[in-house]
Amino acid sequence: MEILQTISTPQDLKGLTVVQLETLAREVREFIIENVSRTGGHLASSLGTVELTIALHYVFNAPKDKVLWDVGHQAYTHKILTGRRDRFPTLRQHGGLCPFINPAESPYDAFISGHTGNALPAASGICETMTKAEISNRVVAVIGDGSLSNGLTFEGLNFVGMRKQNLIVVLNDNTMFISKRVGAVADYLSRIMTSKRVRDMRESVKNTLKRIPLIGNAVYRAAKLIEGNLKSAVTEGLLFEEMGFRYVGPIDGHNLSHLVEAFQNVAAMNEPILLHVITQKGRGYHPAVKDPEHYHGVGRFDLENGNGTKTLTSPESTFSDVFGRAVLELAGRDPRIIAMSAAMTTGTGLKDFAMRYPGRFYDVGIAEGHAVTMAAAMSLFGLRPVVAIYSTFLQRGFDSIVLDVALQNAPVIFAIDRAGLVGPDGPTHHGTFDLAYLRSIPNLTIMVPRDQLMLVKMLELALSLHRPVAIRYPRDRIVEQPIKGQKLKLGRYEVLRRGAKAAVFCAGPLCYTAMEAVKDLEDVAVADLVFAKPLDAKGVRELVISCGGRFVVVEDGCAQGGIGSALLEVLQDIGIPLRFKLLGIPDRFVEHGALPDLRRLIGLDAKGIRRAVQEVM
After folding, report:
1. Active-site annotation holds for 368
2. N or C end of the chain: which has fewer CB within 10 A?
3. 519 catalytic, yes or no?
């Protein structure tokens, strides 16, 4: 790590030779692998952009030149080169380095990242601001190939090309997604090249060339080579050129001398540039190259073999796993059931479904709004779509949920994964707002399973209803000893523990935390609300009255507008004094860290719940 130890800011790169930059790239890659093996993180993406990042900071002058990263999965080298090398071992830990790009952490982080698609619109805004201020510094947006399935990216491309902004877009193509998107253009071109008119013309040219004495066959072979290269160039660059960009590439994203030369060349241009760079996801670590999907986001692992390290808190089975198995089984009974994901097939537990029923599974890419509207249409024309999307990403489809699903009462089932706090990925990925924004939408039924048994029951109930349904569940492992409970009835809550001194209302796995919190408190009731909407107003009112108006609400979502607010709405005219506490995610963005630490900090652990109950009593 001799060279890496000398790099504190990007300015320290400027005096290095290309050979030294290549040595630095090896050192950075080793440093990332070693540290992420201890902390977990987005390994494969960042390993693929080591040389790309070094070349960027070698040529451009951040932070005066602005470098924006789409999502931030690719940006570990950026963090290391911009003064955060010594803090890198604290990555994703509470109080440590942020998992994604955050301007509050460093002046080199130009704009926050976390959800794909915002880099280009943000870069466009910075360009416009610089132009008005007559500032000549450059703006570079680094986007992954998966960004090309996101509408925001194309909206940004359209505007930048229209305004002819002085913006450089670096397309990091690791072939994980772009082949399907650009493949559509390739398919179009292939159809043109195989049309009868073109075939006849090619045959005529072929025969003419071959009739040339002595050199005919050689000329024909050269023409074929030119045709192949031309087709490749048009296929990859046509779309961007038509949108107003000068297309450059594709170039090898691991050849530092080529990258440096390319960046130096485009830095001298004053027009929209799209530089297409081909990289290998996971490069430098064989297990990540072999299985880049698994190593996209990974927990701690054994450095020697890449195997995940086992800890006392390692989940053996998660809510996502249970969901995947349940929807697969239900699909075997009902051929109308289809499943849909937005670039998270494995994360949502749908990998086996996709393999078993490839014709009934749809991965739409990073296009949540499209997924919602597509599912609405499918449901209205006879299919039963189950749409599995992480809570934090479903926010992007809000308008489609309101207008395309709820307004038409389309029977779409939303399986909302990663609801509540998700831990080390932090505020861009916590699923804290779904209950509040979904509760405001008419026609929508919202269920919150406390354990795996309830999740399966809820899926079955949702499929029996001809209306939109949302089922939200956490990233957590399943409950070891789930309560069997009663038969699920629409809009009915369930009392898990009886009492008359105070009541604790909760939803989701926090029901078990609440049971633990009050286990030695005499005469305290615990009720699982089961449904966030419709709420069991009659049951809630009766239990609150029987407890003398004393209650606590516990929820793993934002307290503003959440389940606690729903309870107060049904209790507003109850006619007795109320003494209550609403426990949930506070009115702030919760930082990253281990889940137990975060829940303890905001009072959603057993001690915090117990304290709140004692206060209302």
Report:
1. yes
2. N
3. no
